[in-house]
Amino acid sequence: MKLPDERLWPLFARRWRPTVTYWSAFFSFGLCIAFLGPTILDLRCQTQSTLQQITWVFFSQQFFLLLGSSAGGLFKRTLLSSLSALLSCTLIISLVFAVIPLCHHVVLLSVAMAFAGQAMGVIDTIANLQLVRLYQKDSAVFLQALHFFIGLGALVSPLVADPFLADGSCVLSANWTANSSSSPDLQHLRSSLSGHATALHNTSQYPLYTEGVVITKVSYAFWIMALINLPVPAAVLTLMYHERFLPCFDNSPRLLDKDSQCSTSAVRDGSQGHLSGCCCCNPAKLRDRPATFFILHALGGAILFLTDGIIGSYAGFVYTYAVSPPLLMGHKTAGCLDSIFWASITAGRLAFIYLSYRYTAPRLLTISLVGVILVQCLLLIFYTSSVLLFIGTCVLGLCISSVFPSMLAFTEDILEYKGCATTVLVTSASAGEMMLQLLVGSVIHSQGSYAFMLCGTIASFIGLCLFLLLIYVQRVHRSRYADPPENMDMKEQTPGGS
Q1: 239 and 293 co-located in one domain
Q2: Statement to judge: residues 244 and 292 lie in one domain
Q3: Which single residue of 21, 253, 297, 434 could bond 62 by disulfide (Cβ 3.0 to 4.6 Å)?
């Protein structure tokens, strides 16, 4: 038997073009998801809006990201439709970066971010789905690398934006004084607004001007990010050219589409298109599915709903938790926690690229989920320790970083790579990231900052219980249901091989 690395390198060598393309698309995803937090005050100045108005931009992006994740499953039938959607979405992200400096009203900015969110959601679903189809049982390693590129993009965009952020008030009114909006207050406010849901709480205490002379250079940051992102749609276009999906190659054999699962199934069924017998969500096929098929989808989605919700709420509220009693950290010190958390997630995904082909996905998931619980329990018990909060933030990021890609690979493996699981799981994760932030924000607002860590600990325990139930249902499913022999042959296909 070949060692994992001896098997994976030849696979990657044959399929490096589509793989690198999907990785680059996720860099674009990360670039777009992380810029709002640090730039939101300058965008408030640009649109001359109040804090309450500008924070709805967060909601616009998150809500349409959720819709885009659901819509991404519509493009999975053929590789041509997937790559066409990926090309459009990566171009939209560059276009949004370019037009944001021209949005001088908060409604226009919200519309631009809605387009960006929709594009991000489609990218999220398509890239995950296509990598699963490319590598199937070996997809865990490549999914870990895929999600590493989100973190890489999320680290780049704040670094690009930072030199262009205003140090003081960027809207100067006629009665402005030097002490009216000091840098420490702005730093505190900028850190408070780094999360999507936190922005709606306790912002009225900052009397920032909406009328006056706007002085901000943040436009240059967005134009730079638009240029940084342009190689991504170029990479997608290059892949389409190589695989002869462009109009000038209409009469040439298509290298990837002929191997897609739906095409193969359609040929076997003697059908003329991709709609007959190839989609796992085909109503005729769904009637034949056992109950465990649907339960596995629901459990996998619920686990990612909770774990991605923990990521979103922790990133959004750890600053608020740190500057509140009993910790009462300084604003500058507390502001580092969010960066440490995302950096540890990125480092964890890089480490799990190696671990994923040394250990099975269930083992990695068990270790990760238990680690998340232990860390949050320690943070809950020693809630007065600032040092432990920094250490716990780092370890929590490392533990939770691999849950999404490992769960996706594991669930698709259980369900024999039908493809529907990816759409369900990605959509559930996006919903969890948005909904749990709103829920935790409401609880903190009514019960105090200690409820923040308690909510995360409860969600972690529920996630582990659901995972144990998933393992049990998986065994029942495997013992009672197996694909017909012709579908087993289909798994030997290599969609996307080049």
Answers
A1: no
A2: no
A3: 434
Which residues pair with residue 213 across a beta bridge? 172
The domain containing residue 241 runs over which residues?
A: 1-202+212-248
- Domain count of the fold of the chain: 2
Q: Do the domain assignments include residue 174?
A: yes
Segment 58-107, tens digit of pLDDT: 889 889 999 999 888 777 667 778 899 999 999 999 999 999 999 989 99
Tokens, residue 62: 């998150």
99 within 8 A of 154, measured Cβ to Cβ: no
For residues 30 and 93, give the distance between their C-alpha atoms in angstroms, rounded to a whole number: 11
* pLDDT tens digits, 236-288: 999 988 888 776 655 444 444 444 444 434 333 333 333 333 455 566 566 67
Please give the biggest Cα pair distance in the chain: 79
User: Is the domain of 198 the same as that of 301?
Assistant: no
The answer to whether residue 490 sits within a structural domain is no
Contact 477, 290 (CB under 8 A): yes
Q: Would you say residue 171 has pLDDT above 70? A: no
The values of phi and psi at residue 79, to 5°, are -70, -30
Q: What is the dihedral of CA 264, 131, 286, 416, to 10 degrees?
A: 80
- In whole angstroms, give the CA distance from residue 403 to residue 349: 10
